[in-house]
Specification:
Length: 714
């Protein structure tokens, strides 16, 4: 059974549309005529009836003709795409004449214009391949091209849509037809002038969404011709040229020699930055997209242009309009993210050229492309860019994120420049810290300190610029940004430094400002400790000494207890991984009895209600994994006995559970978590818990049930 060609019209939701209402009334009339003539509602019957009615209505020339003609033409444009090509070819001349008549009937009517374009589109689609070289076929195609230049916006959009549909159906493979189309477009561009640019703009709108559908040869020719329009000094045309080329570069792999040619042209034809912001934004977007396209096709060559792009875009950071600052930043950021690769010193030997902004030329070979990029970024930290330092820092952060862990030498200049900058605005200071933090995260603290070693003991603490010259400002950044630091490095480098600072603090006058400053620096070093505990080796030579210091500091230095507990949690996690790989035996043997001491100290501190309670519990839970089973059982039984004793006292004096009992339950829970209980042990645990399941204190009940859950899960 033939499908209903007007099904979409019947189910159209926008009943407020006058055109839809008129079309439905006209369709009802057509269907009534078919019923009177005993005709089925087939596509052919609809076609004959609508076409004859439309021809009669055009001949009638009445005052109300426009509404009826529009409805019939609208119905015809809906019907034709579903008609068989043979039927359309048989009525080709009539339909083409009809489309011409409808197009010219009312130059203000969007409906008649769009319907005419759709009719011709259907005729072109129905034509056989051998007919494409005929003058009649070119007349049809020319009609579609002329629709692109119509003053009615909806007609232009329909013409573009129709031509794109035809190109997708295979017309893009007809080289002669494409050449004719190219000639028509070039002729429009040639005749373009600042006073007569409307047709050029219309054609650019069309090419913006169509260039990716054309054959590569036509794309190369038309894009070159389009770029020549930028020499007209018409900012509107130039803006749309850039937008069209941006779309092209984003959607197609254009020949590398052509893209390189465009990039070189972009470098020498920078638009004035304070005249037309839309033009500048389009230029930046197009240039950046061309770089991305070039980078995909020829990465080794693309990196040569990165520094020049940054240097060119940086000028827009000095523009009066802040909207251009964002566009310039985004352009530079996307180029850095995509065109800069991980730096490999073995493949990028440093050259001996001067580290100067004047070396940013393609012909300068004494400086490598990566060094040129560093030069361009370093230039953004000069006083000239003081108002946009925020963008400069963010771009440097992007560079650090891409350059990789072995780039400490090539990045040294940027780090020195950044470290010497003093920013008043909080926003810029945070951006600077984030940039340095990215370098620390990517390269690691060892490489950072190779470039900028600490001088914490080499300068007087009373110096006004002590933080700068000693580089103590790096310590908080280490605490925030170090990822998977090596514990051996902490023990061999930072721990001796902390001990020396502690000694200076002891030698200073008791309670003096200098002593307090030394204590703060020592605490800052310990704040970095957790970040170095996630990666441990099988070597035990430094771990024994470290644990003795940890145990001492847990007792004597409450100010760093939180950092120590966090470090212990990370250490236990790393040790668990070694244990899973059967590589933990040397460390466990070396630390025999150490974890029990840690638990004893932390349990006592936790039961006293110290503020680091969460971190203490985590450290207890982690340490319990590496205690001997006998010692763990003994500790658990002692805690149970203490809790029962506390409960007896509470019942004797008629008081509720205190904080000590609740905290003891938490410690008990932490010790139980790694322990797999046998039947006897579980029986003892259950009889203990049973005592608290009906306790008057709801918190104690919850903790008892939680302990039962841990016991059952083990």
């Amino acid at each position: 059974m033939e499908s209903d060609p007007f099904n979409a019209l019947r189910t159209y939701k926008s009943l407020k549309s006058q055109l839809h209402q008129n079309a439905m009334l006209t369709l009802s009339t057509i269907e009534a005529m078919l019923s009177q003539n005993n005709q089925t509602r087939s596509g052919v019957a609809y076609f004959g009836s609508i076409l004859s009615s439309l021809m009669r209505e055009l001949e009638r020339k009445s005052d109300d003709q426009h509404q009826t003609v529009s409805s019939l033409a609208y119905l015809l444009s809906i019907l034709l795409p579903s008609m068989k090509p043979g039927i359309l070819r048989s009525k080709c001349e009539m339909l083409y004449q009809l489309s011409q008549t409808l197009f010219k009937l009312d130059k203000e009517s969007n409906v008649l214009g769009k319907c005419s374009v759709i009719i011709v589109q259907c005729l072109i689609a129905a034509a056989e391949e051998q007919d494409r070289s005929s003058d009649d076929f070119w007349a049809l195609f020319s009609f579609e091209l002329q629709g692109l230049l119509d003053k009615r916006q909806k007609v232009r959009k329909q013409s573009a849509k129709s031509l794109q549909a035809l190109l997708k159906r295979g017309l893009d493979q007809d080289m002669k037809l494409m050449k004719k189309m190219e000639d028509v477009i070039e002729d429009i561009f040639i005749n373009c002038s600042p006073r007569n640019n409307l047709h050029t703009l219309y054609m650019l709108y069309f090419l913006n969404s169509t260039l990716q559908l054309l054959p590569l040869r036509q794309v190369s020719n038309l894009s070159t011709r389009m770029f020549q329009l930028t020499n007209m000094n018409d900012h509107v045309v130039t803006t749309h040229v850039y937008l069209s080329l941006e779309t092209l570069f984003a959607s197609r792999n254009v020949p590398t020699d052509l893209v390189e040619q465009f990039i070189r042209e972009f470098l020498i034809s920078v638009p004035p930055m304070n005249e037309h912001s839309d033009l500048c934004k389009a230029y930046i977007q197009c240039f950046a997209q061309a770089m991305l396209n070039f980078n995909v096709m020829n990465k080794p060559e693309a990196i040569r242009f990165v520094s020049l792009c940054i240097n060119t875009f940086s000028e827009f950071l000095l523009a009066d309009k802040t909207s251009l600052h964002d566009s310039a930043f985004k352009g530079m950021d996307v180029i850095l993210r995509n065109c800069v690769d991980v730096y490999d010193p073995s493949n990028n030997a440093e050259t001996d050229g001067d580290f100067d902004i004047d070396n940013l030329t393609l012909d300068e070979v004494s400086v490598s492309p990566v060094q040129k990029t560093v030069i361009a970024l370093n230039h953004l930290l000069t006083q000239r860019y003081e108002d946009v330092y925020y963008y400069s820092c963010r771009l440097i952060e992007t560079f650090f994120s891409r350059i990789g862990p072995q780039a400490e030498d090539i990045s040294a200049t940027l780090m020195y420049s950044l470290s010497n900058m003093r920013f008043k605005e909080h926003k810029i200071r945070m951006a600077k810290e984030s940039a340095f933090g990215k370098a620390i995260e990517v390269m690691g603290p060892e490489r950072i300190l190779k470039i900028m070693p600490f001088s914490l003991l080499d300068h007087d603490l009373d110096l006004f610029n002590y933080a700068k010259v000693s580089r103590s400002w790096l310590l908080p950044l280490f605490a925030r940004f170090v990822r998977r630091g090596n514990l051996r490095f902490f023990c061999n480098y930072l721990l001796p430094l902390e001990e020396a600072i502690e000694k200076r603090a002891e030698e200073s006058e008791e309670g003096s400002v200098k002593q307090k400053k030394y204590v703060v620096i020592a605490e800052q070093i310990w704040e970095t400790f957790p970040n170095f505990c996630g990666h441990i080796s099988e070597s035990t030579e430094f771990i024994q000494r470290l644990f003795k210091i940890i145990i001492h500091n847990l007792q004597e230095k409450p100010s760093i207890r939180r950092s120590l507990c966090k470090g212990l949690m990370h250490f236990c996690g790393a040790l668990s991984k070694l244990q899973a790989a059967n590589s933990s035996a040397p460390i466990l043997n070396a630390l025999s009895g150490q974890f029990e001491q840690v638990i004893e100290i932390l349990a006592m501190e936790y039961r006293q209600g110290n503020p680091e309670s969460h971190d203490i519990l985590g450290a207890v839970r982690g340490s319990a994994k590496f205690c001997s089973r006998d010692n763990l059982n003994k500790s658990i039984q002692n805690l149970m006995a203490e809790l029962l004793q506390i409960k007896t006292q509470q019942q004797q004096y008629g008081v509720g559970a205190g904080a000590d009992a609740k905290n003891t339950f938490d410690i008990l829970n932490g010790l139980m978590s790694p322990l797999a209980l046998n039947d006897k042990e579980f029986d003892i645990l259950f009889r203990f818990i049973k005592t608290y399941l009906t306790d008057k204190d709801a918190t104690i009940q919850k903790k008892a049930y939680k302990l039962l859950r841990v016991g059952l899960s083990n």
